[in-house]
Design goal:
With 125 residues, the protein is mostly helical. Helix content is 66%, strand content 0%. It comes from Cinchona calisaya.
Length: 125
């Protein structure tokens, strides 16, 4: 990260987002947070990478917090971030929140409507 920062590339999403993924694969969560804290306005890919990384590492509560923060900032989730968010419900067993996310999918738009059969799984828990 020091080399990217030194030349100013840490703000470029095409360099930053693979670095986020690398840090998660190496379980360097502090570095991920530091990197994202330095970004003035993270893009949707950065948010999705953060949610996915936490979910893949079994940190469901952290992933849900990031989703909540993203949603509060008015950043709309996409079909790439929602599966990671859904994975967290099996970790946290927070199916009430799962229903709320299902509602967000319905309200968000038609490109996510194909996910509704997957989201209906929460009805069976």
């Amino acid at each position: 990260m020091a080399a990217l920062t030194k030349v100013g590339l840490h703000e470029d999403p095409s360099h930053r987002n693979p670095l986020v993924s690398l840090y998660f694969k190496c379980c360097l969560f502090g570095y991920v947070q530091k990197l994202l804290d330095e970004i003035p306005e993270p893009d949707l890919v950065s948010w999705s990478s953060l949610i996915s990384g936490y979910a893949q590492n079994g940190l469901g509560k952290e992933a849900l917090f990031v989703f909540y923060e993203m949603h509060c900032l008015g950043i709309k989730c996409n079909e790439f971030a929602f599966p990671s968010v859904l994975k967290t419900f099996s970790m946290t067993k927070d199916f009430v929140l799962g229903k709320e996310v299902q509602g967000i999918v319905v309200v968000t738009g038609s490109n996510l409507m194909s996910m509704l059969p997957i989201l209906r799984i929460t009805d069976y828990f």
